[in-house]
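Q: Structure tokens for this one, please.
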Amino acid sequence: MNSDRNAFAACQAAARRLIADLDWRLLAEAEFTARAAATLAERPEMTPLQACQHVYAATLYAACQDGRRQEQAYAELYDYLYRIACHRRPELAEDASQEAIELIFRQIHTCREPGAFLCFAWYKLLQAIQRLSPHRWQREEPWPDDDLPWHPPDESASDDRTERLWDCVREIWERHPRARDQLRTVLWKHFDGLSIEEIAGRLQKTPDQVYVLGSRGIAKLRQCMTRSARNGATATLWLQTITSLRSTSL
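A: Here is the predicted structure, written as tokens:
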């Protein structure tokens, strides 16, 4: 009983912090806390902050498709992305955030896991920055080394599953050059939504080869995440950041 009360109190503190820091208003504090505590009970591998982020991500996802709440949802999402962009590329923050919102509006149907919606939005912001600063993206890599991972200005605006994902992408990219096509396949498939045939055309591979590349890429990311996770469940949770955004099969 005490542990339940402690978990509820921790979720309440995390919810209050997010509401205060990010001005999230789609959920009242009481409902936000209750839903986060229920999520934490179902998924004990999460921290209270992760549970709150998961709940609010799912709320934003639903609200962005609800005519009654859509305007508020996209306003909050824009502010969230603008906050991150200001930390990393302040000169592009306004344009990149607006373009990311447009991408999200057009592609929201490709986000298959509402709880990962903030990660999905974060990646759309990265795509927008890439398009708006092409001179920084002319190397072979999908992202320049100094841009991954990017760190939001404070813990409230971050999702540690997302940060660890980009840590692992960069680590594998730098240490295992032969695995770069594996990473390209995973990211193009699960984030950009390319088909196997489109990826095969880009890489000049057969579809069967692309399938193998993708499977190996996910295996490497899982191994990297597990190495840093406190337990296997947390690693699985982090991996869902990738695989739940679209179909889990390549």
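A few notes: The longest helix spans residues 207-228. The radius of gyration is 18 Å.
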